[in-house]
Amino acid sequence: MFDLTGKNALITGASGGIGGEIARVLHGAGATVGLSGTRVEPLQALADELGERAHVLPCNLSDAEAVSALPKQAVEAMGSVDILVNNAGITRDNLFMRMSDDEWQSVIDVNLSATMRLCRGVMRPMMKARWGRIVNISSVVGAIGNPGQVNYAASKAGMVGMAKSIAHEVASRGITVNTVAPGFITTAMTDKLTDDQKAGLLTKVPAGRMGEASEIAAAVLYLASPEAAYVTGSTLHVNGGMAML
Amino acid sequence: MSDVADRVKKIVVEHLGVEEDKVTESASFIDDLGADSLDTVELVMAFEEEFGIEIPDDAAETIQTFGDAVKFITEAS
Questions:
Q1: Disruptive mutation site among B38, B39, B49 for chain A (greatest number of A CBs within 10 Å)
Q2: pLDDT per residue over A83-119, tens digit each?
Q3: What is annotated as the active site (chain A) (predicted)?
Q4: Which fold has domain A8-237?
């Protein structure tokens, strides 16, 4: 089940914990992967680890022109983009009353606007192919909010509304657009939390533990697979029961 | 019928799955040939590729009928 042989997948934020694992899992299912991110070294290390069927495609997602060029570079490297995983995201946390325009805009630019541009960039060939999978990685905070993350939560909620709208437009063309919303996942970002902070967070998680990047990747694999053709516009919450939506 | 018209008709017939004789000069893609708004976008994309031209959005909006398409493409190419 879930065989992606012959499919080409572009993954943004592939240098991060979750993005790297998504790339490994899609690659493991037979897909050719385009690894995008800002830092070339970890991307190259991942490509070396994966061996064949892996391409490094550096891109700064805060640069609109670079974002628009990325789908074309991916097509040049792989031949097509059948699966797009918008995983890259940044945070610039601050209390709302102190949040600057720049803190707001930079998060919206990378998390939401770049996602829109990438979706637009891959849409024409997907329409022609009558097949496509877009999976946006949102966050539980896009659904329930989080103090200090007004910008991040807005961008993540925006991804959901955008995915649903695109899903409406292109469903008849065999293209699905879905969202995965992770809860607390073990990554470099959450490693920085103290044990007390982690314990505090876990009181809100019925599963009583943090999630693993591989558990997000498994959800992406399903939504990217031919078997998920009838699932579109949905959000798959992978959060250990933290928010049952 | 001109070469352009033949090529446009072929695209329309293939894309919309309609009978060739339904594709008349005044046939509206949406009202007469059953296209939805996304079909019209795809038709424009197909015309652009077939004829190697760019059809800007504001021009695309004026292409409502088979005749409109042939006229625009003839002038543009």
A1: B38
A2: 999 999 999 999 999 999 999 999 999 999 999 999 9
A3: 152
A4: Rossmann fold (3.40.50)
Find the domain containing B18 and state its range.
2-76
Residues 6 or more apart whose CB falls under 8 angstroms from that of B63 comprise B40, B44, B55, B69, B72
What phi-psi label fits residue A238: left (phi over 0), alpha (psi between -120 and 50 degrees) or beta?
A: beta
Enumerate residues 39 to 58 of chain A having a beta carbon within 8 A of any beta carbon in chain B.
none
**A212 and A185 Cβ atoms separated by less than 8 Å:** yes
ipTM over 0.85? The verdict is: no
B32 is known as an active-site residue: no
Judged by CB atoms within 8 Å, which residues 163-182 of A form the interface with B?
169-170, 172-173
In the set B3, B6, B32, B36, the catalytic residue is B36
pTM: 0.92
Would you kindly state where each structural domain of chain A is located, as residue ranges?
8-237
Contact A9, A54 (CB under 8 A): no
Residues of the binding site of A? 38, 87, 152-156, 185
User: How, if at all, do strands A83-86 and A235-238 pair?
Assistant: unpaired
> How many residues can be counted in chain A?
245
**For residue B38, what are the β-bridge partners?**
none
- The one-letter amino acid at A169: E
Residue of B nearest to A173 (CA): B38
Judged against a pLDDT cut of 90, whether residue B2 lies above it is answered with no
A74 has a chain B CB within 8 A of its CB: no
Q: What CATH number is given to the structural domain containing B14? A: 1.10.1200.10
Rounded CA gap, A153 and A140, in Å? 9
Give tens-digit pLDDT for A145-197.
999 999 999 999 999 999 999 999 999 999 999 999 999 999 877 788 888 88
